[in-house]
Specification:
Blueprint: E1 3-8, E2 24-25, E3 28-29, H1 30-45, E4 55-59, H2 64-70, E5 76-79, H3 87-99, E6 107-112, H4 120-129, E7 135-140, E8 143-144, E9 148-151, H5 155-159, H6 168-173, E10 178-182, H7 195-204, H8 211-218
Parallel strand pairs: 1-4, 1-6, 4-5, 7-10
Antiparallel strand pairs: 2-3, 6-9, 7-8, 7-9
Length: 222
């Protein structure tokens, strides 16, 4: 497998005040808007959208609402452990599944569900740029953003993350592997933690997130 992605959707939105995964982006829940961009990038990069493990969506251990919302959307649901709770536990649950495959991905994108304005072509660029021994992060206007893409060599470290440690722990342990990838995409810096972030992101985020924009660009590369 060349490319895969993990969509982190098991958070509790404490700072948002309600379930931000369901917040409206252009008439659809934020979670589905983010998922559509990731799926468009993976489908553009090569055949095999149904390949096991290609897209993993991590949800809470007991989350029937989002489970139903994701039905038929593509991707494999991974249930985060009920305890310990934390982003590291989510990453570990999905990365362990990928590491156990006969052919683990060469490059793995870790994508927060609260970043719906990342352009699919930016994710394509990160995945294409990443080698097995590299970690690639997007940079817009001098600011490092997300998603972050990890080469195959780091799957084991991601699979061992503890509950409250995120991918930054792996980056700090492997500073020479980090590669900044410039992108013309403010969306990589627009994550949503609270309602003010959400309204700011909607004002500043790219107006056209449709997969058609990616397919047009993909003829000559992103």
């Amino acid at each position: 497998m060349e490319y895969a992605a993990i969509l982190l959707a098991a958070g509790y939105s404490h700072r948002f005040g309600s379930d931000k995964r369901l917040a409206d982006i252009d008439g659809e829940p934020m979670l589905l808007a983010t998922l559509a961009g990731i799926r468009a990038a993976l489908d553009t990069l090569g055949p095999g959208p149904a390949e096991p493990g290609r897209l993993q969506v991590v949800v809470r251990s007991r989350d029937g609402l989002v489970g139903r919302l994701l039905a038929g959307q593509g991707g494999e649901l991974v249930r985060a452990p009920a305890w310990p709770v934390g982003i590291g536990a989510s990453i570990s649950a999905a990365a362990a599944k990928l590491a156990s495959l006969d052919e683990p991905p060469r490059a793995l994108a870790i994508c927060p569900a609260d970043m719906p304005f990342v352009r699919p072509e930016s994710l394509c660029e990160l995945l294409r740029h990443c080698a097995a021994d590299k970690i690639c992060a997007p940079v817009f206007a001098g600011q490092r953003g997300k998603p972050v893409v990890f080469g195959r060599c780091f799957l084991g470290q991601l699979a061992q993350l503890r509950a409250r440690k995120d991918w930054e722990r792996v980056i700090r342990a492997n500073p020479a592997a980090l590669c900044d990838v410039p992108v013309d995409d403010i969306g990589v810096t627009l994550d949503v933690d609270c309602p003010a972030d959400f309204h700011r992101a909607k004002r500043r985020g790219p107006g056209d997130r449709r997969p058609a924009a990616l397919h047009t660009a993909s003829h000559g590369g992103p």
